[in-house]
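User: structure tokens for Clustered mitochondria homolog, please.
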Amino acid sequence: MDEDTAERLRERSINNSDIMETFEPRARQSNQDNAKTGINLSEDQTADCPVLHAEHIQCQENLDQPERKEGDRKTGLQHIWELGAALPQVVEENGAEMNIRDIVELQETGFIVRIQPPGTESFELQVSGQMLVAELHQVLMDHEITCHRTCFSLQLGGATLDSLTELHSIQGLHEGALIKLVEDSYSVRDARLHLRHVCDLLRSLDPADSYNGVNGSSLSYLTFYTRGDKGNRRASEKEYVDCSPPEYILPGCKDRPLTPLQPIRDDWKPLQCLRVLTMSSWNPPPGNRKMHGDLMYLNVLTMEDRELNITSSTRGFYLNQSTAFNFNPKPAVPKILCHSLVELLSQVSPAFRKNFSALQKKRVQQHPYERFAAPFQVFTWTAPHGDHTLDCVRVEETHTSRMGQDKHTAGQSRDWNEELQGCRELPRNSLQDRLHRERSIFKTSSDFVAAATRGAVAVIDGNVMPLNPGEAPHMQMFIWNNLFFSFGFDISEHYRPLGGNAAAHAAAICDLRGVQAYASVDTEGLHTLGTIVVDYRGIRVIAQTIVPGLLEKSQEQSVIYGSNDYGSTVFTHPRFLELLDKTCKPLRIQRHQVLDQNNIPVELCSGVETKGILGNDGRSYILDLLRTFPPDLNFQFSETEEAKDVPEECQSFGYPQQHHHSLASLRPELIEAFVQHRYELYVKMVAQGLSQLEEQSEATEQNEDLVCEPGTRDTTTAGADMEFQRRDLIVKACKAVGSVSDSCFDIRFNPDICSPGVRFSPEFAEEVQKQRKLLWDAAAFLLSNQIPAVRICISEVIIRSAKHIFRTYLQDVEPAAFSAAVSHFLNCLLSSSTCVLDSCSDELLSRRRSRRRRSHGSRVPLLTDSMWARLTPSELWGRIRTEAGDYYHYTIDSENIDEVIEKHDLQRISLLREIAIKTGIQVQLREYVFESRHRPVFGEEDVVNMFPVVKHLKPTATDATQLLQQAQVAVQQGLLKDGYELISQALTLFSSVCGVLHEDVCVCLRLLGRLSYILGEYADALSHQEKAVMSSERVLGIDHPQTIQDYTYLALYCFAGGQHSTSLQLLYRARYLTLLVSGEDHPQVALLDSMLGLVLHALMEYELSLKFLQNALNLTSKYRGATSLRHAHSHHLLATVYETKGEFRSALQHEKEAYSIYKSQVGENHDSTRESSEYLKSLTQQAVVLQKAINHIYSNTPSACIPPPKFSTPSPPAILQQLNLTCGIILIPLSAKEVADLRTEMKGKDKVQVEELENHLLKQKDLRTAHKGQQN
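Assistant: Done. Predicted tokens:
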């Protein structure tokens, strides 16, 4: 490749994009992605969206109930959950309808077959008709009986089954059919895969892969807390329940230990089967031995200290007579040939046979969700110090001869672009076609992300030769495993107009979001590149698939659509216009014209930087999608911008402001929120206008009836006038909300409004100004409507600013000093000590330099003399404050980290967690003493590893997504069972496409658990929620906020199911994780403490219960207010515990507070107020009885027998009712009429009426257009 081509290629590949960083969102994907690739489900308990049911309705705030009439009370009340929070209203899309019968068949086509392994008895196995034969092969490789076999085929009636055939389509395969497992001959590839599988089995209980972030392994600890309480227990069985929590979980404790994050599990204790299993030094077999079928040689050291040399041949495995220094491939005694390596080792080593059998029994006892590999690797930010062990598979995989090869295709390279594009071109007509297509896309995307991540790490580690080795390191490009890699730096000042290196770094993420958006729309015939962004050791790497033929010519010769020089030269092409026009409506992109270098208008359906290329494979590719979403004008400072054009909302916040780069754009979530807001205004305007027209029409008809005789009125003219007025209403409403159409609501944005170098024709000046105003309206909406709902988190500003500094800090660190440099940075950021690290533990001095020091008396330069080692805590804090002001426009007044931690009540351990997750640092699992002023907190050994931080596309199942949307609508209308069935069907499709370890599967499980709980099916709720928790742990992380919330709801379901001890342990775990992540000063802690107080009350641990309830009361007062209904409920909970203890004075005091709040907030006639009043009377009576008894005892005067006071004991149903109230469950009986009225209201009459009018006007417009066409 010549230099010019390489330069152009660099410009193309780096030209990806990122927007200004924002705080970490709860939502996985943008609403833009929801239509095809995901669901954005809020889990907030205080959502406003109600859920209706035939007999009852759930309130948006569990205690803020409206006043009800006595006559409306019904019997048979049921629990109702705040499903409005978990299931927001969604507009059902018009798309291809799926055949529900097909989905039911997917769920019901399971049957039992018999498997006959060689040399052993047959066994039964439950299979699915939709399962491929290849998937059945994988199931058998995991089964306890056949797990040691890998190289076999399956036969039915003597015929070998095709691996890509679905079981239901195999003739003769029915209930009870016998499938024979037939041993096949090995190839070298088969032998290597067999060895890998055996090694995986031997370490199946070892969490090392989870700590190291390899092989799709990740941590899960749920069974550690749920295995101890299997049956129902009464609260009175106190001797069986250990209620005392660790000291660090109690309210008010400031200790935040780290080691409980990953507790020691007994079932993870390794069962060693072999001392050593490794590849022999006699590999590869010589030619004469290949003629005998030898494939490779292995060395084994058994637990009996017996050294074995094993030959892997085409027929199986046997012992040979070789030694460490003598090659003798002849079979050794005993002359046993086994098809499986496990079988051979079991024959020659009794210890192996015993331990391997015990190991497999433990392995199969694990929950499948704990064993399955996750499709995308999850990394843990902390890990214990582990011993490094011999591993022949690991040695082979890291060998340089296999760099870039897939583990299952040794010696081969995959054509990633052809695989990805080929999957997208698969048919999508039927449900089965779509499932097969999406399953293929998901699997290929998962493999692509794993391979590209490995490649990016290899590039940074220097294991890949650059295409242009003569260039500066940051300008180099790489091709590895048919993938193209480039760095996120500004090459040749390509990004200078946009902000230089800052823009180049930001560009990658913006481009990735653009690729996600176009992949979500999924337009047939339009192709995007496989893309991921990897941040590793301070360098951003962009990995992309390669457009066929692009490397053979310059990009200027390849681009037939878009611009390669910021609008100086612009191309268009009818093929790309046709394809991109289909994406304009879902992506809200306005079709527009720009001027080229000859002042000729050029029509575009995307940003001008978007490039269209025809590959040598004939496919239409688009790339450089960094302008897919509209710019955020708040950060597009322009000296030519007039103050009158900037909305007052923006000016009041000091916007527009100069940002580091001009690629700041509006997130898809904001765009959808803004469009929804405008649509509500539009519907309101049209509905009000139509109402006024109807009133005027009725008044006119009445007047005409009085003046004119019946039958003489001109109805044709009146109808035409009414039609004109209706159309005028739509036109005015469209203009008011900024719609690009004058006949229906359709908001779109011009992505080139702020693009440098782009010019528009003067005749479109008014249109451009309207588009700019629309962008300013969206920017103002962000500040006035969205930002006030977000609490600025000072810790996020500090950590994100520190991350920016850390990125450039690491780029100057030599590889031998990474651990020292990272620990030094963490010390400067988080340590209270001013001490610095003196030297590196692995520092070595060369002999030559040592002699020079002796002869010349000069000091040998150490690693700690580098630039990174000169960083001081004060210097770092100053740079953080500067970065926070420049990038986030946030002023930090504190002079050092200690001051800001004390001022804002932050936790150093939480800050450590955040910086580690955001930068890929893995620290040692131990207790860190941050307050020490005499020694640094972190040493070199505390930095265990650095992982890549990977951002990639998230493909999913479109049909399942539509089903989930339909389920949302059904549940919102009160059809809970229908919603349950739809979610079950969605779960089936998601599992079929993505596997069980996926975020969308977790969403379905979580919702099924909640619906089961509502319907009173506690066992089903427990089963679904347990899977949801394990899925969250495996996919999101053991300390992710969603995982914590899932633990909380599982605790509720456990209590309802009678597992009180397990419920308590789960709540303790949730509280510990919350304390670790955010500290005690958080509203989530108030919820957890209220639940803990109730469960402890049920277990009659009253003192502990009071501690947690008192803390919940204090936090509720702080975050909800002292006069809130939640605060009243907290007082009531305390009163019930004090009553049980017999401390009626304290109980009366708290219940009086509760009554006072209820009375002031909802009035004397409200149910809550009346119930509180009745409870006060009961407490008063009990207090009087108790006082009389006490007075009688002290008086020593004989009198009539005074009955002793009755101390109430907590009953599980009563506690469960209070838990439901605390968690957002409420019982509200409704009359049938109220339910009908509310359902009618939910359907939205105004919206239906406006949509019907729009459709009518659009049809008329189409008819007029067609009529004009016929006349011409």
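User: Anything notable?

Assistant: The first strand starts at residue 51 and ends at 52.
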